[in-house]
Amino acid sequence: MTTWTSKSFAALSIFTLLSACDVVDTSTGLLANLAPPEDSTSSAPLTQAQMMRGKVTLVPPSGYCIDAASLSQSFAIMARCDKLGAKTGETGAVAGLLTVSLSRKGTNTPQPTPQEFATAGGLAVPSNIQQGGEHTVFKTSGTAPSPDLSSDHWRSIGQVGDFSMSAALYGPKGQRAISDEGIGVLEEMIKRSTQETNAS
């Protein structure tokens, strides 16, 4: 299971244009290119999305939106709303790239442990393992999807509704997304998505 697939290459510009800083001026330079042109026909960023044929509701953490171009029934990319061209958004939110993938969970099939997940994905030995409810968050290292992002990143594995959810949070090297703040970003997304899914 992986949270990075060939379907997400359309969103590669988000990775390559992430700033080396979390608080930046987005009006000039490369970051200005993240916002679509005024006359763009691109889909607007989403604040939530139905996945797995409506059986899972994905809700981003505070300040994040879903990249509509990346969205499928089982995969989504999220980033700070202002980086995706939204008119409003929390510019103080952690600058990072959050991916989520969903799959059907077999009956009585246990979730993989962080160690099993890392081994299967060719990732480094997990550290900073945080267990909470039906999800586990941990830090690991592996090939980053862009040279601008650190190989160190946060992962989560667990269950939302009747489905397995895995997520990855990447961030610029040495910045907030890959610090302990990253745990809260993943946990908030998991909590919001679980609550909305259970309520539907």
TrEMBL record:
Signal peptide positions on this chain: 1-20
Keyword Signal in record: yes
Keywords: Signal
Keyword Signal: yes
Protein name (database record): Dihydroxy-acid dehydratase
Organism: Sulfitobacter donghicola DSW-25 = KCTC 12864 = JCM 14565
